């Protein structure tokens, strides 16, 4: 299978449409199930050669059909196999019924399964299409398997996970390995699904790429360079600092200047031609003591800012890191309404009492990037953040549409969303990136890319990716200063 095809993300609904289109084109759907089940059996033998018993859990749909095929292959290969089924197997239909008929193993009801030492569980209960909380008997088995510490190989997706959102529906298996077919689902990448899937393998069962691509909307994708490299500025020998953009980062008061400096250095490292810290007059000395390549400009109030903005070369700004919450921040943002702005931290929180005041400032072509973590998101979008029916992708997209902004919804599964409906899931950030000040670095990187002319969504996505790469270079135990030092331009 092409690397590009396995990199696609299809929602469960899109994958169901692929299956239907494949069958309509004349492809033998049972042949696809046969290959899926055989792949699961092969993975089980490869990963768990020392298993004393393979325990195959078969659900009431096609995921269960895959599991019956896997059980048959394991048995025919001489492996010890026990089979447990959810519901009445006689009620299976279509390919799943045919798979059950071809499996000579006599199964038992799921609730009778009692874990034993040496068991390896093959989970074929639900897969990616589950849309409701798991029933009580499934939850009980999940709990018993977890308590026994048994390895789980999930077919398609650990049962109990929502394939679109990655959320746990009541309870879910924690798989050591997951094998899925043709493409991944968003739930494989979104938390907590990413953790619960363990090591993920995508296996080609023979559906033509043309069918998959025809059903793939591309609305949700993984954040990789292919998503934004097409808008990167071309490198030219004849250039100068102003062609690479001028980024301005606003500083807080004299005792709160460090965050702005980390943003400024990061923007410079990300490729901005020049960077200026705009600081209150009382904070100039504190900043000057720590800066060399970054310039300084005194700005005390909105009137000072308005005067400075007569210089039309000043088009890109970062406001929020260490700035302080309140009316001054709101006034500065109002003055910047026609410019490109990354609004972070205190800048976001300054609009918590009237978010619409912020959104009304930035109509037209998106030029605002918002970088909220979970708490800031809920303050700026309380109704969206509190809607339990929405997954993280849905929330980020709804927020992007409302704010007419690129949204960087931060977390272990940072989501980047655009007002036009595009969404990217970031996956390259290591766990050690969760440290104080890392968000200030991210804001600066995005600002540096905006200054170079990248559109808001692409600057946000590329910035998040660069942030993760810098963390890998810096290594475990990094501080925000280390992170900023390891930022490299695209």
TrEMBL record:
Protein name, entry field: Bifunctional NAD(P)H-hydrate repair enzyme
Residue intervals of the YjeF N-terminal domain: 15-213
Keyword Heme recorded: no
PROSITE patterns: YJEF_C_2, YJEF_C_3, YJEF_N
Family to which this protein belongs: In the N-terminal section; belongs to the NnrE/AIBP family. In the C-terminal section; belongs to the NnrD/CARKD family.
YjeF C-terminal domain residues: 224-490
E.C. number: 4.2.1.136, 5.1.99.6
InterPro entries in the cross-refs: Carbohydrate_kinase_pred_CS, CARKD, Nnr, Ribokinase-like, YjeF_N_dom, YjeF_N_dom_sf
Ranges annotated as spanning the membrane: none
Cofactor: K(+); Mg(2+)
Residues reported in the UniProt entry to bind K(+): 63, 123, 159
Binding site for (6S)-NADPHX: 62-66, 127-133, 156, 259, 322, 373, 440
Pfam families tied to this protein: Carb_kinase, YjeF_N
Source species: Rhizobium leguminosarum bv. trifolii (strain WSM2304)
Classification via SUPFAM superfamilies: Ribokinase-like (SSF53613), YjeF N-terminal domain-like (SSF64153)
Functional note: Catalyzes the dehydration of the S-form of NAD(P)HX at the expense of ADP, which is converted to AMP. Together with NAD(P)HX epimerase, which catalyzes the epimerization of the S- and R-forms, the enzyme allows the repair of both epimers of NAD(P)HX, a damaged form of NAD(P)H that is a result of enzymatic or heat-dependent hydration.
PANTHER family the record matches: ATP-DEPENDENT (S)-NAD(P)H-HYDRATE DEHYDRATASE, ATP-DEPENDENT (S)-NAD(P)H-HYDRATE DEHYDRATASE FAMILY MEMBER
UniProt-listed HAMAP family: NADHX_dehydratase (MF_01965), NADHX_epimerase (MF_01966)
Cofactor note: Binds 1 potassium ion per subunit.
Keyword Ribonucleoprotein: no
């Amino acid at each position: 299978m092409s690397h590009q095809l396995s990199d696609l993300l299809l929602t469960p609904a899109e994958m169901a449409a692929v299956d239907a289109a494949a069958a309509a084109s004349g492809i033998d759907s049972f042949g696809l199930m046969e290959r899926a089940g055989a792949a699961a059996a092969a993975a089980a033998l490869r990963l768990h050669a020392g298993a004393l018993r393979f325990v195959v859990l078969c659900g009431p749909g096609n995921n269960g059909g895959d599991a019956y095929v896997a059980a048959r292959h394991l048995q025919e290969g001489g492996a010890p196999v026990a089979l447990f089924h959810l519901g009445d197997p006689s009620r299976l239909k279509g390919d799943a019924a045919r798979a059950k008929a071809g499996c000579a193993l006599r199964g038992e009801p799921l609730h009778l399964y009692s874990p034993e030492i040496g068991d390896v569980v093959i989970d074929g209960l639900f897969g990616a299409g589950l849309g409701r909380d798991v029933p009580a008997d499934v939850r009980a088995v999940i709990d018993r398997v977890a308590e026994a510490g048994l390895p789980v190989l999930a077919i398609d997706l650990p049962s109990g996970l929502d394939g679109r959102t990655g959320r746990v529906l009541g309870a879910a298996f924690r798989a050591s390995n997951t094998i899925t077919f043709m493409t991944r689902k968003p739930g494989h990448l979104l938390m907590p699904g990413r953790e619960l899937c363990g090591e993920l393998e995508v296996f080609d069962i023979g559906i033509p790429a043309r069918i998959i691509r025809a059903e793939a909307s591309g609305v949700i994708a993984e954040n990789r360079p292919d998503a934004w490299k097409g808008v990167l500025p071309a490198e030219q020998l004849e250039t100068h600092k102003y062609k690479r953009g001028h980024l301005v980062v606003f500083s807080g008061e004299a005792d709160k200047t460090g965050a702005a400096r980390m943003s400024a250095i990061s923007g410079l490292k990300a490729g901005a031609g020049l960077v200026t810290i705009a600081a209150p007059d009382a904070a100039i000395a504190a900043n000057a003591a720590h800066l060399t390549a970054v310039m300084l400009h005194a700005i005390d109030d909105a009137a000072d800012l308005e005067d400075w903005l007569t210089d039309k070369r000043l088009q890109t700004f970062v406001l929020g890191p260490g700035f302080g919450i309140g009316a001054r921040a709101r006034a500065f943002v109002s003055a910047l309404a026609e410019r490109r702005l990354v609004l972070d931290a205190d800048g976001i929180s300054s609009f918590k009492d009237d978010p619409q005041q912020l959104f009304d400032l930035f109509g037209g072509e998106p030029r605002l990037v918002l970088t909220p973590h979970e708490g800031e998101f809920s303050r700026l979008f309380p109704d969206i953040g509190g809607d339990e029916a929405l997954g993280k992708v849905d929330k980020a997209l709804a927020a992007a549409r409302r704010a007419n902004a690129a949204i960087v919804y931060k977390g272990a599964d940072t989501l980047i969303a655009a007002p036009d409906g595009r969404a990217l899931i970031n996956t390259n950030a290591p766990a050690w990136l969760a440290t104080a000040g890392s968000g200030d670095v991210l804001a600066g990187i995005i600002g540096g890319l905006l200054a170079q002319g990248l559109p808001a969504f692409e600057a946000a996505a590329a910035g998040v990716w660069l942030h993760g790469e810098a963390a890998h270079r810096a290594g475990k135990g990094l501080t925000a200063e280390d992170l900023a030092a390891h930022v490299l331009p695209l």
